[in-house]
Write a structure and sequence with these properties.
It is built from 10 helices and 10 strands. The protein has a 5-stranded parallel β-sheet with strand order 2-1-3-4-5, sandwiched between helices. The chain is globular and about 50 Å long. The two termini are 32 Å apart.
């Protein structure tokens, strides 16, 4: 793939570029938003990795300009500010995914791989005339196995720990997924502090359902198309328990600025992987 990396931190920029080039991608890198926009206007890119906070135009401005001049370019937002507001704004502006810095190599590789697979599917569809794959059919399978569209770990003080959207689901459901993030945001700010230990079970948003499990320091929320089930709850509780046990000390004092909790990306990726 042809990839643009826009990141003002020289160390991170070089690491990302080296990883992508080692994987066989054609990469161009810039250190500010103005240069990123200039390149996007001048050339076609399959993927753009864009820092949310950088000199010149912000990541949000770069993202919105990319939607205007290169709508086929997938944009992944990178930011060190782990709050739901940033995720909402990024997805509302058309981002394909959201990486919270510092992220590990595996997280970046998984995200880039999903974009590459989606691009290959689209190109195959254009060549053969068959529809591009936008997600798995739920026919004959359980809701929690195939209809889990997104998952979020969010701390009780209102910080987003990690988020993950199933590959192939953004195109048709982008607005609905942004709406679910808005709901999570509102509940974290207003309703969660008022619950005082009471259990929030689920919320409906159109044909989507937000299902939440509560840990000691973290909420795990998943977005499904379908109904809340016992099997889904069991998977969520097990995932939340493992995550919190791994991060007992970190989550007790985590403020979004300290070293990120371990295994958040892996926890959400396992949840989104269909069970057999």
């Amino acid at each position: 793939m042809k990839v643009l990396v826009a990141e003002d931190d020289p160390t991170l920029r070089e690491e990302v570029v080296e990883l992508l080039r080692t994987s066989g991608h054609d990469v161009q890198a810039v250190s500010d938003g103005d240069e990123a926009v200039r390149l996007l206007e001048a050339d076609k890119f399959d993927l753009a990795l864009v820092d949310w906070n950088m000199p010149g135009r912000s990541g949000g401005e770069v993202l919105r300009r990319a939607r205007e001049v290169r709508p086929q370019t997938a944009v992944i937002v990178m930011t060190g500010y782990g709050n739901v507001d940033t995720a909402v704004e990024a997805l509302r502006s058309g981002a394909k995914d959201f990486l919270q810095k510092p992220f590990d190599i595996e997280s970046l590789e998984n995200t880039v791989r999903s974009i590459r697979e989606e691009l290959a599917s689209r190109r195959k569809a254009e060549t053969t005339g068959t529809p591009a794959r936008k997600g798995r059919s739920s026919r004959g399978r359980t809701a929690e196995a195939t209809d889990m569209m997104a998952a979020f770990l969010h701390a009780k003080q209102g910080l987003l720990v990690a988020s993950k959207v199933r590959a192939g689901e953004k195109t048709g459901d982008e607005d609905l997924l942004v709406a679910t993030l808005n709901i999570i945001q509102n509940f974290m700010r207003i309703s969660f502090p008022m619950l005082k230990g009471k259990r929030l079970r689920s919320i409906s948003q159109g044909d989507l359902t937000l299902v939440t499990e509560t840990g000691k320091h973290v909420f795990l929320t998943v977005v499904i198309r379908g109904e809340d089930t016992r099997g889904l709850r069991e998977r969520m509780r097990a995932s939340l328990k493992d995550f919190e046990e791994t991060n007992k000390a970190v989550m007790a004092v985590w403020d979004g600025l300290l070293e990120p909790p371990k295994g958040a990306e892996e926890t959400l990726s396992r949840l989104l992987k269909p069970s057999r």
